[in-house]
Structures are given as C-alpha cells and as structure tokens.
Design goal:
Blueprint lengths: L17 H14 L8 E2 L2 H8 L3 H13 L3 E3 L5 E3 L3 H6 L7 H4 L9 H9 L6 E2 L12 H14 L12 H10 L12 E4 L2 H11 L6 E6 L15 E8 L2 E2 L1 H7 L4 E6 L13 H13 L4 E4 L24 E6 L11 E4 L2 H15 L4 H13 L1 H28 L3 E2 L8 E6 L5 H10 L2 E2 L1 E2 L10 E5 L5 H17 L1
Parallel strand pairs: 4-15, 6-7, 6-9, 9-10, 10-11
Antiparallel strand pairs: 1-3, 2-3, 5-12, 7-8, 11-12, 13-14, 14-17, 16-17
Helix pairs in contact: 1-3, 2-3, 7-13, 8-13, 9-12, 14-16
The structure holds 4'-deoxy-4'-aminopyridoxal-5'-phosphate.
Cofactor: pyridoxal 5'-phosphate
Keywords: Aminotransferase, DNA-binding, Pyridoxal phosphate, Transcription, Transcription regulation, Transferase
InterPro entries: Aminotransferase_I/II_large, HTH_trans_reg/aminotransferase, PyrdxlP-dep_Trfase, PyrdxlP-dep_Trfase_major, PyrdxlP-dep_Trfase_small, Tscrpt_reg_HTH_GntR, WH-like_DNA-bd_sf, WH_DNA-bd_sf
Amino acid sequence: MNMLNINWKPDNKSSTPLYRQIADYIKEKIGNGEWTVGSKLPVQRDLSKIFGVNRSTVIEALDELKADGLIEGRGKKGTVIINNTWSLMASLPSQNWEHYIKSGIQQPNLHTIQIINKLEYRDNIIRLGTGELSPELFPKEMMKKIFANISNKINSLGYERPKGSLYLRKILSQYVKKFHINTSPSSILIVSGSLQALQLISMSILKPGSTVLVEKPSYIKSLHVFESSGINLRGISMDKDGIRLNEILRNLDNRTSLLYTIPTFHNPTGTVMSQHKRDNLLNLCMQERLPVIEDDAYRELWLDETPPDALKSKDRNGIVLYMGTLSKSLAAGLRIGWIIGPESVIERLGDVKMQTDYGASSLSQYMAAEWIESGLYEIYLESLRKNLKSRRRAALKTLEKHFSDIASWNIPAGGFYIWLKLKSKINMEKLFYSCCKNGILINPGYIYDFNTNYNIRISYSYASMYDLQFGLKKLSKIIKDL
Ligand code: PMP
C-alpha cells in the first residue's frame, strides 16, 4: 500500500484551530486527486510528530474525515483513504490507482533506498553515506564564468543529434586521450547521467533471461536497472585488487551476457583493480568473448596517485563499453555522462535514447563542453582533490578515535567511500532505522550486496567537515548502544 509522504505543518499563529487546518489540508489533497483512494496515512503518533501537534488534535481531524466518509481506520493496517471528495459528491466510483502502481516493468526501489531518497532532503539530517559532492565544494565562481562564456556561444537550444552534441563529443574524444583512450566522436554517446547508459544497455542490447556478472558487492545491486528488464545479476567476489578472475571463469555459462565492473575506486568498497589484474581481465574477456561495461565514474578523484589506465585504453577488439560522467567530479545535477563503444552499439543506444528523452539537456551539454574546453575543469579538479584529501584525513582520524574497537576499514586511494566493516553481527536494518531516528543517514552495506553483510558505506564527500566528524562520533555511539 502506498504510504503518503507529508511535508507540511499547520500554522500555529493562525486563528483557525489546528485540527481544522489539518482536516482541510487532507481534504484538499484528496480533493485535488493528489492523494488517491487506497493510499495510507502515517500512524497517529507519526502524524502528530509530522504536524507538530498533540495526538488529540490529530484524532479530532481524523474523526472529521472519517465522518465525511473520506478515510477509514483499518486496525493494524492504519488509516486508509477510501473515497474522493468529488466521487462522493457525484456518487461516482473513485479511481483506485493501487494496482496500477504495483504494475509496470520497472521494479520499485529497495525500501531502505526509498527512505534514504526521502530523508536526504530533511532539515538537520547528517548524510554520512551520500555519494555526491558537498554543496561546500561547488565551484561557484568558476560556474559563473562558465555561464558567462556560454551565454555568448549559444545560438539555439533545440534538440541535439541522436548521439548528442557533436561539439561536446569532439571535446570528449580529446579529453579521454588523457586516460589513453583513443576514440572518435562517432563512437561516443552523450547520456543523461551514466545511470542512463546502463538503462539503455539493459533495454537495447541484452536479452531478458540473460545474466550480467558484477562485483560482489556492487553499486548496481542497489538499483533494479538490469533486473527490471528481466536480466539477472550474479555476484563475483573481490579481493584487495578487484574482482576474482577465477570466479568469473567458474560462473560463465551460455546465459552470461556481459560483465559490469567498477575497476577504479569501486563503489562501495573503494577498491582499485591493479594494472596486472586489468591486463588479465581484458585477456580473459577477449578469450571468452565476454563484453565488459567499465564504469569509470570516479577516475578523476584520485587522491594519492593517478590510478592504472582504464581497461578501455587497451581494448583493441571493441569489447569494452566505457562509461564516464561529470556527476561525481563536478555536478550530479548537470546529468551529463558518456558512453564509448563500437559505433554499431553506440548507434543502437542512441536510437533508443532518442525514443526515451530526445537527448540530454542541450544547456548541460554546452556547460560540460565549456568546463572541459576552457581548462577550468582541470584547475578545479586539482583543488577538489586537495579538499577531498583533507576530508578523507578527517574521516579516517575520526574513525581511529571512535571505531577502532568496533570496526575495521580500508583507506581509499580515491573516490568517496570508506567501506566500514563492523566487528559484531548486529541487526543492520535496526541500525539503519535507529540512525534515522537520531538524525544520521547511512548507506547500509546490505543494499549493495548479495548476502548479509555488516558493512556501512561511509562517504567523506558530502557532509560538512563538522557534521562528518560529529556524525561519525554519534554513529559509533548508536552502534555501541544497539
Ligand atoms: N556509476 C557509479 C559507480 C555510481 O556510483 C553512480 C552514482 N552513484 C553512477 C554510475 C550514476 O551516476 P550518474 O547517473 O549521475 O552519472
């Protein structure tokens, strides 16, 4: 049943009684068709917290709505909307969207992720798991320059070509030379974030019923991109230098369609695949004719030394589909990523992309091009690395101080994440909810894994330095008190 998300409070200063304001608010939501029949209201205790009123005020408002025939108490199932104001007035049957909501190809998010996605925007919550750059790190002054520069260059903002702006693709084909990737603009597709590239791949070039091999754990397990197209994920375990090659071999069968890997600053473990393993992996994939998606979202975020070259840089057979994005290194909201691969694949993906959204935002494409072409991106990345390095230092210092007795962890060489492994087998869901109640948002490891685990993905990229340290200290206390 669809639980309603309420982000509103009655006005304490108004002369209208609080219960009246609440009843009117709910009636308006129902009357506008925003809250449909079958939707569930939070329990009274939660409603009184959300509205900031006594429980008796909530009860008074709900009683009125019950008397009007709009809602019904269903014991332990809570209070449900049973009628629409208009359908009541017109004596029409009301539309029940519930079974539509449960239909459709795309699977819903994991419940924990739905909660994370909502709580991220609550005031005063400390986000210890968010895989995004902090607003503090946003290069505001440089962004102003970019806006000024592009304002002189834009002559129209129409649809772009199926593969995206040729201007941006030319710039990207030069930019990726930095990673020893040689490609021409015709082999690049601009996507609305690299997640879309995965969506396009799953819809356009993979067969339902096939299997995609992925690291265990993996970022991709936290979504249902492949599963919603009827594709199964099979987890392959990792060691300290990346995915286990023997295990890939053991898991190959005639249903295996490709391998999805994050070799550089892996999400969520931070692991970097060694050069040696990269070479062996590429050989193995060529021998087995196993195409690879190389997700390189974090490459620019090295903190100690540049990481080994991308798999793509040595791919002479066109078996690697290489994904890049500006989301992790500059601004996730630009929604600009790219995928590089054989032209035939890129054209197929571009054709499907045209049917999906007619292309990524042209404005964002101009901005991306300007960032890279002007050289500002490179200058900004240097300072970003310094900032991330001090954040990493602060996070590790705080962990030393408060987690030494309860957890172990890796020291990431880049990216955003510390993969914290708890020493005792506590109930991780309980920990997640307990953190939420205490104003701390974490990404528990189970959302990324195939089996139970006792990890937490800590990100040092998002929370302010103060919140990061304060939040980690609080988290250690919550774990110890659980
Ligand atoms: N790949 C990886 C490994 C990620 O961590 C993320 C973001 N969490 C994405 C892809 C998606 O990024 P975007 O769609 O914003 O480019």
